[in-house]
């Protein structure tokens, strides 16, 4: 099944929700208006449709393999990655100082969606490299930046994030990897890291591992963790590749999905110690790692949207082709294509509405990121930063959870054929399941949303967002169409559910933390549901003002469907959060 | 991960909800009281835990394979199946006249759950045999019964259902397989059937295919379909195995899950015609096939409960063992097992509540089946038959859809380890996805619920069930505990949502069938959600009256959790059904 990038929908969001022309007024983004967006997206679509997407099924059938510490990726990956690098796609959002194109996230995020729709496994390598670049840009010394950034931005080298150890998954306080200072200012790193995506592969000349480790004598827990660069090949003084560093891939995982992307166990220092270079200051590693994590979390949310889009396209094509049964409304004599059946339409509309809603949320969040970094007014930057930070767990948590629903429906639309691997729908179902887990499970995102983003300021930030939503409701009601009024009503009910929940969680967080955290994931799902519906409400305002246009009409129908079928889940979530906390923990651990 | 059959919970349901002692008063069930249930379940648990469960992972790793029309099952399957047959497990619910044990479905269903928890792929073979037995019992001639039933009931031979063809999946009107009458009264069968579970294998001496086909000159559509027995080996006059019949397995599918169960493409008649024997009368095949289907649909619902139970046990064991992070309530100093974290508890409670709720629904329905067939009073039989028929799409549709949620949560509890195949949680996630598809997709179940079970009688049957639920609410309110009152309130809200939806659907079904069917699956989910919650409400009444007992306390907490977290989804579903139908079909097929 071929992939067609939804360029039109992306540009709609970039123009009307992310408001790219406003972004293009900010210093540094002068050339990044709608015209640039269109040109970049069209080029990006061509590359991903033509080069990357055809490798998706082969990657599943013929995953990366390991022999003698060497990982060989799926045939075709290496050549495609070379094209990816040469096309400048790795550097899209990175600074021109290091060879990037310095484009806004509002454009870059759409490109990242395409890459992930085309091939989730392939796209993971650049995703991790982006994280490494962010960390070095923020915390690296000038020397580290000069040494590594250009090669990473150009896609000649790739980056990894080395956090997890067998005993330390979500709980980084338990990290045990050691770093011993050397007289020359470098460190020797010893330890085992697991779940390292593209921790070893054959697509680039060097791999720049960013590694969490403890320096001897550091405080216990997360306050004693430092961040190191550990390159696969140590560099000579002239920057050329030198000796093989003492970090080796000892195994790769046998996974349910994203099989083409090698998930490595890396062994550091079994032959004398791996040479590492401190990033920033000792014991501030977690802080720096969060920079990578925040970039990666947003990107994983985009992965959710991407796989949902691909699953939707696959199911839609089948629904338009498969003939089965007479429509209940008698609109077709005899058996019809299954898209004529109301429940198939309900499934397709659900897939479409969730995907478009989350895309709208992600691109709106991207514009806030751009403003937070480029707007000339400090107060505006601050507001946008706060908004973006609230959005990150929603983009990550909600978009990935919805991708499980969408990929499930994608199989379901296919009936029995969906369960047969050759059909292709099952791969999305298997691939998607990692997205609610890595870069922090949905519960970890929800902890962030509850703790840092809601309880800390007494739900003030949450309520500020609710006020923005109320303003959209007003505009919808004023616009006066049936769709707009109906959407406004659903938004109002969902918003009230959200405010009740935020207030409850803020109130309980100190006095009864179990009660606050018992509702953490439902609260995240409620917030994500609401914000995506809100963005579709904004889209509806644009669409209904646009007159007679097929795309705009479909957008209006999709927004209405979302309100009737997805936003209506919100009040039930509120009841579970606000009135159901006690029953979550009523059964003691030993009573299970 | 070993499996432990939840014998205690099953017996609780059999005693208090299925009321086995009432069943034991019916003619033919005199020996089938609680004591018998306990003895059978304990024996069944031993067999499935010890013999069948250990083959679950090997089946996934080393699936059935095909060579020269011969299917070889996973090593160990054949021997285990022999033990299964020798233990008399195939005949548990079948008439003593043909060598069965004639036990009530209320006991048999629990045994079937165990078998499926132990090994979904293995259990499919007996499941299909049960269907073939039902069809022959109801529609077979005395000669067919005498020839085949004993061997099927004893497990020496197995049965299959041959419905699907490449162009005819949900739409059996499109069946093209032909049957040509022969002078000796037999038929020659020609055609291709796909998706035939255990259509070929090495676990039994003969395979009795029940095949839908058209006799030349039959009416078009479903009214021209007849049912045939086509044995793999034609029998000699003395009943011994004779010639190999002209039905061959030409390929088996490469599936996402249930890999050990061979899903065959069967070719009938390529070498002169497969010998077939008419079941019942010509052109009444669909009617007979529905007998098999109804038996199989209920059983697939039980499969959903079974895989959910297994996923729950797996996740629970991990949650009690994996140490990660400090509990938010400070109840443990330092890192604790993850079951101490509220969101892990919420996931486990969700898994547990859905599983127990659906088990309660299924076993209550089983008791209705028993009464419908064995109660001395015709009026009581009729009422129970109506109730059972309403339950079948709920047991099938809701229990399987919930199993997707439960197996997803099962992976999620494991974090990154869940995505690694060796952990085992991923297999449940992959296996479960077939359950919402085969024996009629969720949409097909929902069509049945909307058309035959709700619209046909103007929602009278639905409202009669609602009245029974209202009576339980009254009893809960009268019992006066906090849990009971809270559950009664949630039940009342969900019941009202159900009645609104049923009335809406009945009202629209003629005038606006698209509107009725647009809400078909949400209506099924709402009805299933409510009925499972109702049964947990009944369980709560028993549990809270039982005094100080750990099992009973846990049951009460689970019922309360279900009410707060699952029943609260019902009003949102009602809004989508009653107020959201138009947006489902507003976008025309050609506008996608």
TrEMBL record, chains A, B:
EC top class, as a word: oxidoreductase
Domain Acyl-CoA oxidase/dehydrogenase middle span(s) in chain numbering: 161-270
Entry cofactors: FAD
Stretch forming the signal peptide: none
GO molecular function, one term: oxidoreductase activity
Acyl-CoA dehydrogenase/oxidase C-terminal domain ranges (all copies): 283-449
InterPro entries per UniProt: Acyl-CoA_dh-like_C_dom, Acyl-CoA_Oxase/DH_mid-dom, Acyl-CoA_Oxase/DH_mid-dom_sf, AcylCo_DH-like_C, AcylCo_DH/oxidase_C, AcylCoA_DH/ox_N, AcylCoA_DH/ox_N_sf, AcylCoA_DH/oxidase_NM_dom_sf
Keyword annotations: FAD, Flavoprotein, Oxidoreductase
Domain Acyl-CoA dehydrogenase/oxidase N-terminal stretches: 78-156
Record domain Acetyl-CoA dehydrogenase-like C-terminal: where: 467-587
PANTHER family tied to this protein: ACYL-COA DEHYDROGENASE (PTHR42803), BROAD-SPECIFICITY LINEAR ACYL-COA DEHYDROGENASE FADE5 (PTHR42803:SF1)
Family: Belongs to the acyl-CoA dehydrogenase family.
Protein name per UniProt: Acyl-CoA dehydrogenase
The organism of origin for this protein: Ottowia flava
